[in-house]
Write a structure and sequence with these properties.
Layout: H1 2-12, H2 20-43, H3 45-76, H4 85-92, H5 99-108, E1 112-114, H6 118-142, H7 145-155, E2 162-163, H8 166-177, H9 183-187, H10 194-225, H11 228-256, H12 269-295, H13 304-335, H14 338-346, H15 351-370, H16 380-402, H17 411-414, H18 416-440, H19 451-454, H20 462-467
Antiparallel strand pairs: 1-2
Helix pairs in contact: 2-3, 2-18, 3-4, 3-5, 3-11, 3-12, 3-16, 3-18, 4-10, 6-7, 6-14, 10-11, 11-12, 12-13, 12-16, 13-15, 15-16
């Protein structure tokens, strides 16, 4: 009798059943991506390494944004997230597993194999000389001739190949000779140390693994016991985790992406990456929830109001991202300090001007205007279009941050197939793990205290039931 009850209970539990074509897509992406990545590695190793970083930061942002959505739910007790929380939990739990994709970056971080396009190298040289001239004028006024002389030497381009993170070459040079002409690195040497850099990335993945897996562990435990204590534990984790999240996301964005150009200063860079991450993650969660509502086990759980609330938050982060990106640009433009402006000057030439305009209009104006009406937030054809646009623009955004370092004109587009290969490989691998997680666990929280409210079901209070004689 007991065995029969267990069997029936197991059958009653909703399962993830994907259409036949959907189950094959991750494997196809993985195989096609692997072929392109292998070819790209031998065709242009420098471009391949930067394309790998672009794809890594793209998928990292989706996972970090999902982590924030889970934290947001427990911090504000937002009931509408409950039905899609399991989607966010599984996306967030990919964070510690992404260490596998980061290991190649850690291995080649200090290797000197990067070849810069001749046009890009010449452009960098011009900007360096402009910086030197401005520094010399300041040095003449202050009488600091020592600083001026060293800066002049620093302006000379490195011969041969560069290190992936060039500051690691400066650190090595300083350890070998006791001298350095990289004053930007020397001023930040307490932070820009390879040993400390390795400790930071290990710490980031470890802390992400702890918080994401513990939050999901308590959520799954509540599916079995229904205990409110599980929610309380998650709220405590979220109260601490939101500060850990802010610190580790900032470290990751600065160390792995901004660190490519360590001479640049921006106090808003972490918030800028955060805004783009949550923006991309929200639309990704929306599309997954919509797909599972149409074909999977969430068809009776996810309501139109849930999708509308998700799209509304996405709309809010569309505005927030635009505000942060504009603020960063405006402050640097207004101050007009050469040590800061060179980053944007480099991105206002060649194809990067067009990419910048694409980000301004496609990342803000188009989704902003498309989502102004309330009714479009629940229309699949509109939201799928917005999602494809968002993924494309976020990829352009990550490329805008990374690729101008080695490409000024046509090199980026000529080798775009390598970028597509990296995106396909990582996307296929992460999708397979995500689907595995979904098949192993219930697709939505079964006994969350607010699951009934999420589904629009009113549950009478105990006092009301008692008063009515029930």
């Amino acid at each position: 009798m007991t065995a029969k009850k267990k069997t029936s209970a197991k059958k009653a539990e909703p399962e993830l059943k994907l259409p036949e074509w959907a189950g094959k897509v991750p494997l196809i992406l993985l195989i096609a991506g692997a072929v392109l990545v292998l070819a790209g590695f031998f065709a242009d190793r420098s471009h391949f390494a930067h394309a790998w970083l672009v794809s890594f930061m793209f998928y990292l942002s989706i996972c970090l944004g999902a982590f924030f959505v889970v934290l947001l739910h427990y911090l504000f007790d937002s009931y509408w997230i409950v039905s899609i929380r399991r989607v966010a939990e599984h996306l967030a739990c990919l964070l510690p597993l992404m260490v596998v994709l980061f290991i190649p970056i850690a291995i080649w971080s200090g290797s000197e194999f990067v070849e810069v396009e001749p046009d890009a190298a010449h452009h960098h040289e011009e900007q360096a000389h402009k910086t030197i001239e401005a520094t010399e004028k300041a040095a003449d006024v202050s009488g600091d001739t020592h600083s001026s002389a060293h800066q002049e030497e620093a302006g000379h381009s490195h011969e041969g190949r560069l290190a992936f993170y060039q500051w690691m070459h400066s650190e090595k040079e300083y350890k070998d000779t006791g001298k350095t002409h990289d004053h930007a690195w020397f001023a930040k040497r307490g932070y820009l140390s390879k040993g400390f850099w390795n400790l930071r990335w290990i710490f980031c993945f470890a802390i992400w693994g702890f918080f994401t897996w513990m939050l999901r562990k308590h959520s799954l435990e509540q599916d079995k016991t229904g205990a409110a204590e599980c929610t309380r534990k998650c709220r405590v984790l979220a109260a601490v985790g939101v500060f850990v999240f802010a610190a580790t996301l900032t470290i990751a964005a600065i160390d792995w992406m901004k660190g490519l150009e360590h001479q640049w200063f921006s106090t808003m860079y972490g918030v800028y990456y955060f805004a783009g991450s949550v923006w991309t993650s929200l639309i990704t969660i929306y599309i997954i929830a919509l797909f599972l509502k149409k074909t999977g086990p969430l068809k009776d759980i996810v309501r139109e109001s849930t999708l509308k609330d998700n799209a509304t938050l996405f709309f809010a982060f569309t505005v927030f991202y635009a505000y942060i990106h504009f603020s960063q640009y405006f402050l640097i433009w207004n101050a007009a300090i050469p040590e800061e402006t060179f980053w944007y000057v480099k991105r206002e030439d060649g194809p990067w001007w067009n990419v910048g305009m694409l980000i301004i209009f496609g990342h803000f104006f188009v989704p902003f205007l498309m989502l102004l009406r309330i009714d479009v937030k629940t229309r699949p054809e509109v939201m799928i279009t917005v999602a494809v646009l968002a993924w494309f623009l976020h990829f352009c955004d990550m490329s805008y941050n990374i690729m101008p370092l080695i490409h000024r004109f046509g090199g980026w587009m000529q080798n775009i197939w390598i970028d597509i290969g990296c995106l396909a490989l990582m996307g296929g691998a992460l999708s397979m793990v995500f689907i595995y997680f979904f098949k192993q666990h219930p697709p939505y929280p079964q006994k969350d205290p607010r699951i009934a409210e999420t589904m629009g079901v009113y549950v009478p209070l105990h006092s009301e039931a008692k008063a009515s004689g029930k």
